[in-house]
Design brief:
Low-confidence stretches: none
Number of helices: 3
Number of strands: 0
Mean pLDDT: 80
Order of helices and strands: HHH
Strand content: under 5%
Distance between the termini: 30 Å
Number of domains: 1
Radius of gyration: 16 Å
Amino acid sequence: MSIDLLTVYRDQMVRAVLGERPAMLAKEADTTMLERLAQRLAEAEAGMELLRNKGYGKRGMSILDMVKALPDAGKP
């Protein structure tokens, strides 16, 4: 997982709440939760890209719809 992608998502979340102030200057109340949310978002995006590269889903599909379309484990 790229640290840069995680930082990008983290900064976007901070800006979404605080406006256009530089995210690096903001003081968040729960840094641990913010990092956890940013990591989950980055992992979801990476997972979607991997699934698309393996031929599953289409661009614009939500990750939930993409996972629903996957075959069940152990079934052809």
